[in-house]
Design a protein that fits this description.
about 575 residues; alpha/beta; Rossmann fold; GMP Synthetase, Chain A, domain 3; 3 domains; nine-stranded mixed β-sheet; six-stranded antiparallel β-sheet; 15 helices; 28 strands
Length: about 575
């Protein structure tokens, strides 16, 4: 197959669309992630760094709790390069856990929460086996699920969220030291109790020296269809993404921002665009767990939040909660929606409710964790579009069958990416790495178009995009996302009519609500363009799924053909 074009010769028309203050290039420092905490600690030691459920840590307190956990993990035998499964969810414990692992040079294998907890727990066991994890840090409820699913690792510490974070004397009389737990050694240890046992151990930062920026920081599981891969993201990748997010909002004021992060903190979007970018800016980061369906408006009002990183589901919840209309949201200046397409009507409603906040979407792929494109915060935007490649990112559209042939503006094709945030490859999978990472480019799965000004529009993933009878492209996930925002829909699946090539949708309703097919079609008509609207919506009892929990489109097409 022909090779991709020379990266150095690619024109970058999107730079002309950057608003003032956003640089086309920036020298990303070659530092490990915990350096972000060190810098914020130097400039804003007593400012609140992170808060969750009214428990807060200043930068000094965050450093101290990280040091406590570093001491414990080293006593357990954790060394640079060890892999730890992290299943702590969105709590104030999670930033401490991640920073402690990264301070040592260990690698976090994050397990974001999911709606199907049983399937996620079973997948976690697969991930732990595939990546060879040495131990696990999990919240109490997740730990029960993981053990039931058969998780076996060298040791496990359960977290009790905020209990162990309260200030305590740094030194106490010596107590018996912990030993590394094996699967037959007895009960799981509580994180707070374990740290209390080590309270008499002098806190030192001895180790193997500074952590190099090129070593892995995260292994992100990619369980899609038949693929079983873990994406390697280095400290440099994550620091680069953090700077790119920070640079995209040129009027951020160091030490003066209050950032609300609503979503799964172990997912790349909330983790990097929200928490780490907030840490870089010396901001107070407010963590709002995704399972909490109300109270987001109160949190924004109470703390005069200036920036927010929200998943679309949280945007919908914010607009629908009864308390929202009584709360003052005008402190918000920028809202970044990450993780899925945002309904343009909802975005406009949020802009009105906040008195003019810039509501913008970002786009990324896990192998470029997590941002590659975004709509300019202070510039021209196109609803539903990916936007422009962010600072130091290059993207082109090529023929899927000939990577050396660049498509003309407006022609659909496969997207190639390059930039400092792009992963070096997959964990212990040289064949898959060689196929995806070619001559400095990441060969994505995404079909896109680009206009003459460098603005990109996403059509769908190559392995699932639907090609209608008239040759149009439809992204089924976008249609499913719109349908699942209807309060009466529990699960949606989209495919093509086997005979006529028209878009059709299947819907599994909520138990206590059963909207009519006409109501759901009207909902699609209000939120989708004419090309993407399904011709029919059929109510079903179950949506066929793959082992990875995705819609099994061939099986769905056969099921609907019988109907």
């Amino acid at each position: 197959m022909p090779r991709p074009p020379d990266l150095a010769r690619i024109d970058r028309p999107w730079v002309r669309g950057y608003p003032p203050g956003v640089p086309p290039s920036y020298r990303i420092p070659e530092v490990p992630i915990p350096r972000l905490l060190d810098d914020a600690l130097r400039d804003f030691p007593e400012a609140v760094a992170v808060r969750s459920r009214d428990v807060s840590l200043t930068h000094v307190a965050l450093r101290d709790r990280v040091t406590d956990l570093v001491t414990l993990l080293r006593d357990l035998g954790v060394v640079r390069g060890d892999r730890l499964l992290v299943a702590t969810g969105t709590t104030i414990t999670t930033p401490v856990v991640l920073l402690a692992l990264w301070r040592i040079g260990a690698v976090a294998v994050p397990l974001p929460p999911a709606s199907d907890r049983g399937r996620t727990a079973a997948r976690a066991v697969e991930v732990a086996t595939a990546t060879g994890v040495d131990g696990a840090l999990a919240s109490r409820d997740r730990l029960q699920e993981l053990q039931t699913a058969g998780l076996e690792v060298g040791w496990v510490l359960e977290t009790t969220d905020e209990d162990w974070l309260a200030p305590r004397p740094r030194f106490r009389p010596p107590r018996p030291r912990l030993r590394r737990r094996r699967s037959a050694d007895g009960p799981v240890r509580d994180l707070g109790a374990a740290i209390a046992e080590l309270a008499g151990t002098p806190v030192t930062l001895h180790g193997e020296g500074p952590v190099p920026s090129h070593v892995p920081a995260l292994l992100v599981p990619r369980w899609r269809g038949g693929d079983r891969r873990a994406i390697v993201l280095t400290h440099h990748n994550l620091v680069a993404s953090t700077f790119q997010a920070r640079l995209w909002v040129p009027d951020i004021q160091a030490g003066r921002e209050h950032v609300v992060v609503a979503g799964d903190l172990l997912a790349l979007g909330p983790m990097v665009l929200g928490w780490l970018a907030g840490l870089l800016a010396g901001a107070c980061v407010e963590l709002f767990p995704p399972e909490e369906t109300s109270g987001l408006a109160r949190t924004i009002d109470r703390h005069d939040a200036t920036l927010a990183v929200l998943e679309p589901a949280q945007v919908d919840a914010l607009m629908s909660e009864s308390e929202s209309s009584r709360r003052d949201l005008t402190s918000l200046r920028v809202v970044l929606a990450a993780g899925a397409p945002l309904d343009p009507e909802t975005a406009r409603e949020l802009e009105l409710r906040t008195g003019g906040a810039r509501v913008r979407e970002g786009f990324g792929v896990s192998e470029a964790g997590p941002i590659t494109h975004a709509q300019p915060v202070y510039g021209r935007t196109t609803p539903g579009a990916m936007g422009l490649p962010v600072t130091d990112t290059v993207a082109i559209v090529v023929d899927p069958d000939d990577l050396g042939r660049v498509r003309e503006p407006g022609e659909p094709g496969l997207m190639l990416l390059a930039g400092p945030q792009v992963s070096p490859g997959y964990w212990e999978d040289e064949e898959a790495t060689a196929a995806r990472f070619v001559d400095g480019w990441l060969v994505t799965d995404d079909l896109v178009t680009v206009d003459a000004d460098g603005g990109f529009t996403h059509l769908g993933r190559r392995d699932e995009v639907l090609v209608t009878a008239d040759g149009g492209y439809v992204a089924p996930r976008r249609v499913e996302t719109v349908l699942e925002r209807h309060p009466g829909v529990r699960r949606a699946g989209v495919t093509l009519d086997a005979d006529r090539g028209a878009v059709i949708a299947a819907v599994r309703c909520q138990r206590r609500q059963r909207p009519s097919e006409e109501e759901l079609l009207a909902h699609c008509h209000a939120h989708l363009d004419s090309r993407s609207r399904p011709e029919r919506v059929i109510l079903v009892d179950e949506i066929p799924e793959t082992d990875a929990g995705e819609v099994a489109r061939d099986a769905l097409r056969d099921l609907l053909a019988e109907r």
